Every structure is written in C-alpha cells, then in structure tokens.
Please model this.
Amino acid sequence: MAEKIALVTDSTGDLSKEYVEENNIHVLPLKVVYRDKEYLDRVDIQPDQVYERLDQEIPSTSMPSVGEVIDLFSRLIKEGYKEILSINISSGLSGTFNTVRLAASHFPGVKIEVLDSKSISMGIGLLVQEAASFIKNGGNLTGAVERMHQIRDNLKVIFVVKTLEYLKRGGRIGYVSAAMGCLLDLKPVIAVNQEGKYFTLAKVRGRKKSLEKIVEIVKEAAEKNRLRLVVMHGDAKEEAKCLFEELKKITRISEIRFGEVGPVIGVHTGPGVVGVAFYPE
Model:
C-alpha cells in the first residue's frame, strides 16, 4: 500500500483557493511587507489591494521562515503523513526553496522531497496540479518526483510587463536588460531559463506586438506537441482575456485555463503583466 503523501507548495504558485482546498494542497504563504505591517500572500492581502496602494508605497516581499516551514511539516506528520513533496518557486528568484530544504533536514526519519520548480506563478501551479493528479491516482513519491522533473524540463513561462521598473527595483530582473524599453518603445518578451531566472526571449516594439509575439511562440510550440496551458495576468484582465480567446483558436491546445498572479508576484512585476505557462502533454 502506498504511503500517505502530503503535497506542499508556496503561494507564488497562484493556485485558486478552491483548487487548493479541493485537492488538499498545503500552501506556505510568502509575505508582502509594508513599512507599518506585513501581510500573508493571498491570505491577508489580495492582488487588487497591492495595485491600489502602489502610488503610496511599493512594498517588498519576504519568504517563509525556517520555523514556519518546520511548523507545517510537524503538523503534517502529526496528521499521519509519512512522505512529503514540496514544489517551490525557482531558487533563481527566491530563497524559499533553500529555506524549505533546510527545514526538511530537521526530519531525518521522514521522506521529504523538495523540488526546485525553476519556475514562477502558474508554471509552479501546473507542476502542482500534475503532482496532485499523479498522487490521487495512486502514484508513489519517487514516481511523482520523476514526473515533475520530466514536466519541469519542458515547461515554459513567457510574459510581458508594462514597465521593467518593478523587476529592476525588486532585484529579480535576471538576464533582462534594465535599459530596454527606454528607447523606441522596445518591449522584451520575458521567459524563464533552465536556471530559473528571467531572460529576454524576444524584443518587439509596442505592447500590442509583444502580446502577438506570445501567440506566435505558443503556435510554434503547438505545432510540435499538444499543450496544456494557462493564461495569467496582474491587473490586465481585458488584455489577458483577449489573449486567452486568441489562444483558444489553436487546435492543439488540449487544455487552457485562466488565472491571476498573486500579490507577491504582482509586487515584482507591477500592474499590467500578461503571460502564459505551458508544457507538452
């Protein structure tokens, strides 16, 4: 009989509250930090509240503490879980993965696998959804980890922002040139590389063309394989809906969903982020 496996992730996976509750996923919230108070991501603060306050204060973010992760793992073990799989935000973008790994070392008698998603937002969410399905269908921990590696190696996250200022300010700009966009309205189409860091996938002129470029990239990928895909946005619902409708026309997308990035991601991208996450079936 397979051991009882707990599935853990962090709040940057941007999964809906309904999905998390229905699939018994345990979420470690990151924090949005203002001068006078800090808020748990998607618990005490929602995305629109961050955007509404940006003209007054641009907050910072912080990861869960080792103690908070230990508390969660202790609770799960008390609930009867013998094994834990934790899928976390890219180590190239946050220290969360290393914090969770450190916390896991406090439980030598429990089998805990901590996976660096090397991804962000619904890129992580897609991995968690696949893991939840795998575990629900009777898969064991070793098989789940192998499946996650297989998907992660083929997972793409591509997005555009209205300004690079927020990525630059938060120190998350990676290999994207911070100077871009200052001249000729050049817009980088940003992706996440194998290190789990941002880089410029393409350069186009203007917002409209940057969104069209995302459609072009997805079409090229769908020519090779059937895709599972999520469209996501932060304070750009109408543009994201238009992108969603355009992508629905691609026949080789077997599953397409729509989502919103959470407060922590919104702090680093600013309002107006639109993107996709996808992987081949």
